[in-house]
């Protein structure tokens, strides 16, 4: 089963000038922290590969990230689907 620690299997990881993995304008580490903090690591891992995001073309979060969709947009779609209060987006 995939985990947040194995993100590179699911995301085209790029390294920024500071050496941190990035995708678009948001660091993948920030996305991982947000989803783990909000939902817990076990649920977050499942959500990445099991939950289909209709806002992102019927992709899972892992598929959306791998397709190059900004992690911030993936996070927002997850928050909408799971009724996360807007102040935590």
Give structural notes.
The chain has 89 residues and is an alpha+beta fold. It has one domain (4-83). Helices cover 44% and strands 12% of the residues. It is built from 4 helices and 5 strands; from the N terminus they run βββααββαα. The chain has helices at 28-39, 41-50, 61-66, 71-81; strands at 14-15, 21-23, 26-27, 52-53, 59-60. A 3-stranded antiparallel sheet has the order 1-2-3. Helix 1 packs across helix 2 (41-50). The longest helix has 12 residues, at 28-39. The protein starts with 13 loop residues before the first strand and ends in an 8-residue tail after the last helix. The relative contact order is 0.18.
Outline of the structure:
This protein has 89 residues and is α+β, with helices and mostly antiparallel strands. It has helices at 28-39, 41-50, 61-66, 71-81; strands at residues 14-15, 21-23, 26-27, 52-53, 59-60. The radius of gyration is 12 Å and the shape is globular.
Strand and helix map with partners:
Blueprint: E1 14-15, E2 21-23, E3 26-27, H1 28-39, H2 41-50, E4 52-53, E5 59-60, H3 61-66, H4 71-81
Antiparallel strand pairs: 1-2, 2-3, 4-5
What is the residue-mean pLDDT, rounded to a whole number?
78
Rounded to an integer in angstroms, the radius of gyration calculated over CA atoms is: 12 Å
Helix/strand structural class: alpha+beta
What's the tally of helices?
A: 4
Query: Describe the biggest sheet?
Result: 3 strands, antiparallel
Low-confidence stretches: 5-13
> What proportion of the residues form beta strands (DSSP E)?
5-15%
Helix content estimate: 40-55%
How do the SSEs run, as a string of H and E?
EEEHHEEHH
In spatial order, strands of the major sheet run 1-2-3
């Amino acid at each position: 089963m995939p985990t947040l620690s194995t993100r590179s299997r699911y995301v085209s990881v790029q390294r920024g000038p500071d050496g941190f993995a990035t995708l678009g304008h948001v660091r993948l580490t920030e996305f991982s922290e947000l989803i783990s903090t909000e939902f817990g690591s076990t649920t977050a891992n499942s959500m990445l590969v099991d939950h289909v995001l209709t806002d992102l073309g019927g992709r899972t979060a892992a598929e959306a990230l791998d397709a190059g969709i900004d992690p911030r947009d993936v996070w927002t779609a997850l928050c909408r689907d799971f009724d996360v209060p807007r102040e935590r987006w």
